[in-house]
Specification:
This protein is an all-alpha fold and 283 residues long. Helices cover 69% and strands 0% of the residues. Helix 1 (11-39) runs antiparallel to helix 12 (247-267), helix 2 crosses helix 12 (247-267) and helix 6 (146-168) packs across helix 13. It is globular and about 70 Å long. The N and C termini lie far apart (49 Å).
Amino acid sequence: MEPANSTLQHPSFLRWVFRLGMAAFALIQLFPLVWLVDYSLLKSSQFFSSSILIWPNPAQWSNYRIAFTAGHISKYLTNSLLVAVVTILLTVLLSMMMAYVLTRMQWRLSGFFYSLLVVGLIIPLHATLLPNFFIFKQFHLLDSYGALILPYVAFGLPFCTLIFCSFLQSVPRALEEAAVLDGLNVPGIMLRIILPITRPVIATVSVFSFLNSWNEFIMALTYLRSDMYKTLPFSILQFTGQYSSNYAAQAAVMTIIAIPSVVVYLLFTDQITNSISQGSVKG
């Protein structure tokens, strides 16, 4: 006769408990996005209802039209894309080069600079707002794309370089030694060997850089003044007044801001998992 707790120890039962737990966790994580989309289709007067979710009847699609027209989304979206693309390219290029120098080249101060990268992880980005403001003012970088791109790249380099270092440490040196025997120099090795095998890491670093630059607002609010350089989060301020605000339009703008982040993350989920797992297991 089987013991009473044999059902609880059955693999299929434990598997279903795990699946239900993960499904509940996924619903909890997705709820803020569902709530945001739901409220972006309501009237502003319905925001103060006691219900958590309200079925939009009818759906106020005009909120998105107002967001695009009065919120200057087209112009701000172009600026955000420009800043994000340049930030991604510079972060990927510089972090890959730094990781190659730290993991493949023997030089006296390599350990010191590696430790310096680790220290860079503990410095809060917004703790440098005031010093950067005076530096950018001195070099006439305020109210420009550079005022955003430079700190985004600088604060993304430590984490992204460590990811590249962890992955490169799992790559056998025999590949590069064979390439050197074939006559390749360092730029050729980077282009023909390192670049193809680090595609999962490049995807991870690109997603990380995109999310940091796309959603950041405090730094942009501090360094930018003219509409020529403002990024997408500034659209929310267009619907904030001294005595009243258009909450429905703000929810529509936030939904528009959130959608690219969700899409990018879903597209590169496999690459992110592969890069982290390979670097942690073999590194």
